[in-house]
């Protein structure tokens, strides 16, 4: 009888322990979710700190790069400066790589990602995108002497891409037969192209066009590939206050023709007459085909 009673007490103890652990696990899970939801900064927090933390590229001229004096410059940075100024704070920049843009927005390591960030369905499930300020497609640049002008020419050749970009996603999905040579940073991708480690390099057509104009031995043989996409700022999921601020700014700046002025200051010196600004610039968040 005592032995049977011991078994019953042990069973009750085990059930209680499991229930307590489950309760704690549920509470810990709830606490973790709450902490994640609260990890972004409010506009009041940003103003109190005096700085808006913005993730940008440091090696993707003319959109985000560091000049010879150590200052961030480019189309994205020009916009970032205005966002911070209108909020009454200073812009503080954190250098990003293509593959970590989602992580930095998703985890609140930066307030805003402004790093030539193409809007995709997959990314929109992890971050919140504001209205667009630019439109873009993919392009392919290669040496003039062996210029790649069609996808078929990439068969049995290496195509260079940056990890975490829409080019990587596009070729993995639509052309798995093409072998990709992947790098973390844009500097590495262009060095690989210059060194002849790949037959061509694919990324946003805006970027390859700009690079080819500075490197006359190379040419963009494929100027538009895939769908026309948009580029937009991104914030952490659920940060509705900051998202609304950015959207209001984009609408307001559109009335000033701000992004065309941005283009003239940052992109026109690179593209010259080779590109029509209206093919790239989006004013007021409204995309016009």
From TrEMBL:
One Gene Ontology cellular component: outer membrane-bounded periplasmic space
Domain Solute-binding protein family 3/N-terminal residues, every copy: 51-270
InterPro entries linked to this entry: Bact_solute-bind_prot3, Solute-binding_3/MltF_N
A Pfam family annotated for this UniProt entry: SBP_bac_3
Matching PROSITE patterns: PROKAR_LIPOPROTEIN (PS51257)
Cross-referenced CDD domains: PBP2_Cysteine
A Gene Ontology biological process term: amino acid transport
Position of the signal peptide: 1-21
Name of the protein in question: ABC transporter, substrate-binding protein, family 3
Protein's organism: Dialister invisus DSM 15470
Native organism taxonomy: Bacteria, Bacillati, Bacillota, Negativicutes, Veillonellales
